[in-house]
Amino acid sequence: MSERLDQARAWLRQDPDAETRDELAGIITRAAGGDAAALADLEDRFGRRLAFGTAGLRGELGAGSNRMNRVLVTQAAAGFAGYLLQRSTTRPTVVIGYDGRRNSRRFALDSAEILAGAGLRTILLPRLLPTPVLAFAVRHLQADAGIMVTASHNPPNDNGYKVYLGGEDGGSQIVAPADAQIAAHIQRVADAGDVSLLPRSAAYEIAGDDVVDAYIAATAAVAPAPFGVQEMRWVYTALHGVGWETFSRVVKAAGYPAPRIVDAQRDPDPTFRTVSFPNPEEPGAMDLAFARAREADAEFIIANDPDADRLAVAIPDPAAEGGWRRLTGNEVGLLLGWRAARAAQGTAGASLACSLVSSPGLGAVAERYGLDFHETLTGFKWISRAPGMVFGFEEALGYLVNPDTVRDKDGISAAVALLGLAAEARVRETTLAGLLDELGAEIGHFASGQVSVRVDDLSLIGSTMASLRAQPPAAFGARAVASAEDLATGDAGVPAGDVLRYRLDDGSRVIVRPSGTEPKLKVYIDARGESTADAARAVAELEAAVRELLAARR
């Protein structure tokens, strides 16, 4: 354990943050005295390093190489600067954004000072803003790269570091091999020692509000309000994130009536005090929005996650508890894909795209309207690169509706597109539920479900995947497996990924993969039926079979 104590003391000497220094100093003192819990804590903090990958960095705040903190962020910024300088023959430009989480602004300032100190042109967004504004700014400012400090919808004590590339990457998130190359540069900085010796500079620029204004104008143009929707009643919640300021301006510019607000969740709050988990997919996260909608007799609810790159939608449903239900990400994705397909019909080379775990219904929409269709690995780093894409989505509430301006999921532009659909429905004297029924009549009725198994021991995920590979299931309940694909080999027309896909003899589909951002094993289930009830019944039966199988394999 002397090695861990030495690592911790070296870290302590270079840490500029008084809070994490005090935290670590106390752990070191207890560990040096033989305290077993403190020794285990040091092992967890320094036994490995928070890995930089295609999702950048994301983890719990705290001292140590396996936590998000100012030392780690400084190393990441210096490594990223080295990568950009190596790949460019001119002075690179980097734009940096940040949200309302703990330390987001501080991490953004550290990054700006380090990048400017390395000689790069560095532009810091003017205040805390949604992730889509940063993704937009990379393209709008023709920057070589972008950094967004956010942990999106992760727990309150997490933060993260998301990286985009301009130029031929078009403002998309990084993919391999860039992730490994950046990680190697970061490791060299870490190996060199004390980050306090790295050059810093205050010679970075603060972007003007014209960047935000340009985003608002481009986003409002996604779906300007038609005449006759001023009486539309709807509810909005920002889930304590940064979405409201920007979204409210977009709504006004697009001509829609202002929503009823969940006031307790309107403004940024890094404690996310009214929710146990700041993700609109989680049970209870939208309870205050449901209450506000009942009070306002609303027609629908729109919610953004804390950095506003995701969109959740809920509609009245007498059969649901409390009279409201959240639409699945697949239902929203199919509605928005239908909208895009109708607009793009007849456009040569236009395509719809989704991740391979998202509803196969999007392929049916593309076929119905004569468009190309692409399935990708999970993540908008892949979806955003689909050829000819006019719309892309993933079932985890991510939607890309304006690829010419933002090459990432964007919960604000998707919300405007959804407002356009709701307005269309209202003018035609129907509802969003009515539009879903119309779509089902056109392409068939699709239903989806998901089984997520959260673990404390990450090795359980690997062992379960290994068990499924060694002994592939022959059936899920009464449904036999017609074919099984292991996408780790990259032979299914997509880059290699840790994904198992089973096609069943009744046309249903089951996909198993580890989560890319959380300690979860995720299983995605899709079925198609003659009616919504038929498809939902098949999904429920498959969910039960999946849970039984996973319990036996753990």
UniProtKB/TrEMBL annotation:
Cofactor: Mg(2+)
Matching InterPro entries: A-D-PHexomutase_a/b/a-I (IPR005844), A-D-PHexomutase_a/b/a-I/II/III (IPR016055), A-D-PHexomutase_a/b/a-II (IPR005845), A-D-PHexomutase_a/b/a-III (IPR005846), A-D-PHexomutase_C (IPR005843), A-D-PHexomutase_C_sf (IPR036900), A-D-PHexomutase_CS (IPR016066), Alpha-D-phosphohexomutase_SF (IPR005841)
Chain ranges of the Alpha-D-phosphohexomutase alpha/beta/alpha domain: 50-188, 214-314, 329-434
UniProt key word RNA-binding: no
PROSITE patterns for this protein: PGM_PMM
Highest taxon, organism lineage: Bacteria
Family in the record: Belongs to the phosphohexose mutase family.
Name of the protein this chain belongs to: Phospho-sugar mutase
Species this chain originates from: Microbacterium commune
